[in-house]
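hey all, quick one before standup. I had two proteins in the batch that finished overnight and I want to keep them in one place so we stop losing track of which output belongs to which input. First protein below, input sequence then structure tokens straight from the run.
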Amino acid sequence: MKVAVLDNKGKDTGRKVELSDEVFAIEPNEHAIYLDVKQYLAHQRQGTHKAKERAEIAGSTRKLKKQKGTGTARAGSIKSPVFRGGGRIFGPRPRNYAQKLNKGVKRLARRSALSLKTKENALFIVEDFQMEAPKTKDYVSFLTSLGIQDKKSLVVLSGENKNLYLSSRNLKGTEVVTASELNTYKILNAKNVVLLEGSLEGIQENLGK
């Protein structure tokens, strides 16, 4: 599959690049996408949540009142969960939310996500370019030239491009990542994906069968 290469002004360079069909034109596997996104979101959770249970509450263990004859329910401790300030019943405890997913499934999910973007005509290939200085205005002009300034976008670089990254950092709705940081969630979370030409080789090499 051949796709036109644009310059950073959004104009056709007259060149076309060959995209691998096994990465950008497969039948998307929705279950693989689901599993990969689920794992990514689970890994964002710190798992440091904690509530004190009755054994951890500071307070007296003296029996509050006599067992019988008060006309109310028996009560043994002020730390009981039924009292205000008492422990919490089955409260959250620190835990690890990490999930295991085979590498083959992860690669399939990413190929599926990229294929979806290709089908939706939401994938742009732009020739590599550098910014002389970090300027948000220049980065906005770049997105405007592609017609995606008002949509969520993901720009994928082949490697470190400090000025381009810094120019995008204080804008909402756009993210700049390197090819090695690309994942299924980021691809699907963006309305449009912009691949700099230099990133294609690494993406196709990593995700190819």
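OK second protein, same deal, sequence then tokens:
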Amino acid sequence: MQFKARTRRKPVGLTSLIDVIFLLLLFFMLASSFTRYQSLDLSSGGEGGGASERPAYLRIHASEKLDLNGRPILKADMPDLFSALKENSIVAIWSGPDANVQDVVDVMSAARRSGLKSVLVTGQ
């Protein structure tokens, strides 16, 4: 009967494991974004009964090219123009092919801040 000498196993070193965890933590910290996103309340269409009033028609052609009911306007003038539309409290927003999402969100935010009852959004 032969006996084999038992070999002692080395304990697993934690140094390499800690290095890998540190690298993963560093990667995810650099890959993630910590910006704060804001939400904009949207509601789906309700029961249709026809429009009782004609909406104002705002077209977004490009970032600084807007028109309201066919008249060119500036982004800075939107709050004043929307406040003047109180009796016509629905605005239809059309976004053209050169408009980006931020332009549409800026217009929707200005419309909501001015207290308009309804904002309709359409686009290409």
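Flagging for whoever picks this up: The chain is about 30% helix and 20% strand. The longest strand covers residues 56-62.
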